């Protein structure tokens, strides 16, 4: 049995969602019985009870992340470089089709290697994080491999035959238990829910070359990367969510100051997707990112269910809103009723004077 | 058929998930009993209509659903689509893979120049059917579109990626899935509603499609076993009062989280 963490390697740093996928892969393999030591040659391992943790490191930085993957419990590393279609300000992107071809190729090659080593595995689970990159390819991968797919799960168990997943539905008001079985299953897991844990192992490395992809005439013409640092909201411990209640440059400056003072990253509601005051990548909610920070500070956000679906798993929620009946107060641990344009200057001053103390 | 170019919009109806929800006997009920057009598909349709106005595409909407869904599909015609097809008789518990296989059979027979659909369904948020369909068709796809234009016989899609916006050109035929951040879908006008009554709506059994028998008899590979209420967050304290009271409460709240670096 194989549990394979599929890890995109486009940056120097591994996203923490990748470490979460590795951690979850490791714990699934452990729960299946004894974990292969990885130090032995794979020929000595019998198939059946044991589960292998594999990391499929795909992208130009695949080599870079080998050590990290082994540190987080992957005893078999499968590396593939991938052609990059656009590179702008450090952000690298490959067309979805290349990804599907790459995963298909590693699946085919590794299965035939294992078979020829007399180590055939009867079942394989592929785990992905739940980024836009994954959303762009997961369905196509499932169709290509003829394998069932469960997307965006918050919990998962696997006995080598059956995969039982929990996933939120109906704007995160209902938990749905989904079951599938197949010799290959694909799952994507929601970020921020599995604390990354180190489980250092000795790993063996296999290299694969990227297959030639027919892009079917498709061309990645340009990338527009946001200026400055590209923050990964799903990793931020403190998030300052900005809604329609912040409506001008003065407000934006107040928010920036506050975010700096509490070491927070800025996120937005859809209101600011429309206003154009912030980068679109910062959207949180049903159609944006799903986050689960230590603190979500909601500023002038009404608490629509589509926004809440993206942040209700936050550890603590503090909300400021001038409307005492705003739905956000139903889920906030601390709700502050008042006008942001009065509160924020006073709050920033209070925090600054505390710093100076 | 004329040689007019066609955009096929794949749409579904969903419960009105934004109305209040209650549980009865392990099943979910919504206070608004009337199904709605999936919001993401409404954005897809809106975009198809805009492209049609600019470039003269014919817009055809296909929906898989029970006969009752004709009412929701009629709304798509009222928004401005030219023609619609309702595919009935989907297998019980059809999952994304089953839906994509059915749509693939329909698309191959129909032969549109592009398929545009929502990036996910607003009830289950699964978001797999689009790229499954593209893979079955062997077409290029682009997901999570926040801008679409047609130029030189190509679709140019601006896609919202994880840390950048990607501009991708695809020849026809191609498949695009839409973010709801792409546009605000129009509300049908009275004139549109009247006109929709005269527009062609075909109702067709899935078993009538090429490969129909196997389409209706293949069991879904993923099964929803149970639905349970998510533990709701409990309401915390709500602070009202003068500015000083509010700021004090905030500082205290922030100081309770070590990562903020605010001292208690
Ligand atoms: C299919 C679909 C998907 C969607 N996906 C998302 C999503 O992913 N993310 C998302 O955010 N939205 C999403 N939406 C939109 C969502 O329904 C709301 O429209 C949006 O979240 C509202 O943003 P808001 O809370 O900032 O604005 P509003 O709802 O307008 O709320 C503004 C709040 O600010 C308060 N306020 C105003 N001025 C002040 C002031 N001076 N001081 C203090 N408080 C003030 C008001 O009392 C109000 O409560 C989606 C909608 C649909 C249909």
Features:
heterodimer, A: 357 residues, alpha/beta, Rossmann fold, 2 domains, seven-stranded parallel beta sheet, 9 helices, B: 264 residues, two-stranded antiparallel sheet, 7 helices, 29% helix, globular, binds flavin-adenine dinucleotide
Bound molecules: flavin-adenine dinucleotide
Work out the strand percent of chain A.
25-35%
> How helical, in percent, are the residues of chain A?
25-40%
Global morphology of chain B = globular
Tell me the radius of gyration of chain B. 22 Å
| Oligomer class | heterodimer
Main β-sheet, spatial strand arrangement of chain B: 11-10-9-12-8-1-6-7-13
Structural class of chain B: alpha/beta
List SSEs of chain A in N-to-C order.
EHEHEEEHEHEEEEEEEEHEHEHEHEH
Enumerate the spans of chain B where pLDDT stays under 50 for 5 or more consecutive residues. Answer: none
Note the run of SSEs of chain B as H and E.
EEEEEHEHEHEHEEEEHEHEEH
Query: What CATH architecture of the largest domain in chain B would you give?
Result: 3-Layer(aba) Sandwich
Average of the residue pLDDT scores of chain B: 95
Would you mind describing this structure in some detail?
The complex is a heterodimer of chains A (357) and B (264). Chain A folds into 2 domains: 2-208, Rossmann fold (3-Layer(aba) Sandwich), CATH 3.40.50.620; 233-356, Rossmann fold. In chain A, β1, α1 (16-31) and β2 form a beta-alpha-beta unit. Helices cover 28% and strands 27% of the residues of chain A. By secondary structure, chain A is an alpha/beta fold. Chain A has 9 helices and 18 strands. In chain A, α5 (249-261) packs parallel to α9. Chain B is α/β, with parallel strands linked by helices and 264 residues long. In chain B, the strands form 3 sheets. A 9-stranded mixed β-sheet of chain B has the order 11-10-9-12-8-1-6-7-13, sandwiched between helices. Chain B has a two-stranded antiparallel ribbon with strand order 2-5. Chain B folds into 2 domains: 6-215, Rossmann fold, CATH 3.40.50; 230-264. In chain B, a hairpin with a 2-residue loop joins β9 (141-151) and β10. In chain B, α2 (70-79) packs across α5 (190-196). The chains are: A alpha/beta (357), B alpha/beta (264). Chains A and B meet through α3, α4, β7, β9 and β10 of A and α3, α4, β9, β10 and β11 of B. The complex binds flavin-adenine dinucleotide. Flavin-adenine dinucleotide sits between chains A (243-245, 269-271, 283-288, 300-302, 304, 306-307, 310, 320-323, 326, 339-341) and B (39, 122, 180).
């Amino acid at each position: 049995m194989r549990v394979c963490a599929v890890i995109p390697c486009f940056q120097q740093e591994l996203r923490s969602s990748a470490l979460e996928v590795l951690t979850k892969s490791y714990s699934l393999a452990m729960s299946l019985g004894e974990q292969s030591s990885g130090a032995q040659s794979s020929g000595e391992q019998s198939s059946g009870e044991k589960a292998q943790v594999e990391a499929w490191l795909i992208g130009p930085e695949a080599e870079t992340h080998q050590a990290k993957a082994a540190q987080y419990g992957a005893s078999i590393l499968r590396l593939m470089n991938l052609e990059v279609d656009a590179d702008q300000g450090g952000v690298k992107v490959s067309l979805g089709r290349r990804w599907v071809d790459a995963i298909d190729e590693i699946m085919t090659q590794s299965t035939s290697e294992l078979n020829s080593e007399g180590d055939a595995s009867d079942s394989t689970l592929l785990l992905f994080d739940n980024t836009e990159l994954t959303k762009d390819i997961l369905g196509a991968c499932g169709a290509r491999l003829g394998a069932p797919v469960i997307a965006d799960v918050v919990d998962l168990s696997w006995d080598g035959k059956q995969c039982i997943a929990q996933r939120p539905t109906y704007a995160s008001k209902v938990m749905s238990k989904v079951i599938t079985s197949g010799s290959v299953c694909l799952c994507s897991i929601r970020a921020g829910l599995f604390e990354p844990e180190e489980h250092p192992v000795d790993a063996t490395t296999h290299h694969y070359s990227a297959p030639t992809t027919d892009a079917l005439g498709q061309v990645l013409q340009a990338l527009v990367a946001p200026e400055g640092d590209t923050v990964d909201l799903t990793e931020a411990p403190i998030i300052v969510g900005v809604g329609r209640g912040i409506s001008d440059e003065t407000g934006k400056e107040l928010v920036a100051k506050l975010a700096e003072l509490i070491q927070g990253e800025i996120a937005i509601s859809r209101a600011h997707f429309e206003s154009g005051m912030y980068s679109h990548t910062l959207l949180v909610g049903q159609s944006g990112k799903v986050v689960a920070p230590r603190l979500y500070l909601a500023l002038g956000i009404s608490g629509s269910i589509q926004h809440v679906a993206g942040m209700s798993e936050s550890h603590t929620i503090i909300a400021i809103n001038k409307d005492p009946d705003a739905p956000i107060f139903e889920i906030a641990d601390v709700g502050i009723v008042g006008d942001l344009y009065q509160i924020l200057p006073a709050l920033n001053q209070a925090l600054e004077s505390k710093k100076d103390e | 058929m004329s040689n007019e170019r066609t955009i096929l919009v794949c749409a579904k109806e969903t419960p009105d998930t934004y109305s209040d929800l209650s549980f009865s006997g392990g099943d979910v009920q919504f206070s608004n009993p009337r199904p709605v057009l999936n919001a993401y598909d409404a954005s897809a349709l809106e975009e198809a209509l805009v492209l049609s106005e600019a470039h003269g595409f014919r817009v055809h909407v296909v929906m898989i659903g029970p006969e009752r869904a004709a009412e929701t599909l009629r709304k798509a015609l009222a928004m401005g689509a030219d023609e619609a097809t309702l595919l009935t008789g989907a297998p019980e518990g059809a999952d994304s893979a089953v839906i994509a296989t059915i749509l693939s059979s329909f698309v191959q027979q129909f032969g549109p120049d592009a398929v545009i659909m929502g990036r996910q369904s607003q009830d289950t948020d699964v978001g797999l059917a689009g790229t499954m369909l593209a893979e079955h068709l062997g077409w290029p796809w682009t997901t999570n579109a926040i801008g679409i234009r047609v130029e030189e016989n190509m679709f140019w899609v601006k896609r919202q990626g994880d840390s950048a916006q990607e501009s991708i050109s695809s020849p026809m035929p191609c498949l695009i899935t839409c973010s709801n951040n792409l546009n605000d879908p129009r509300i049908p006008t009275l004139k549109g509603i009247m006109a929709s009554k005269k527009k062609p709506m075909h109702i067709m059994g899935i078993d009538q499609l090429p490969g129909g028998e196997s389409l209706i008899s293949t069991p879904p590979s993923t099964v929803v076993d149970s639905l349970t209420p998510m533990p709701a967050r409990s309401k915390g304290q709500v602070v009202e009062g003068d500015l000083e009271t509010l700021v004090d409460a905030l500082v205290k709240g922030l100081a309770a989280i070590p990562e903020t670096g605010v001292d208690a």
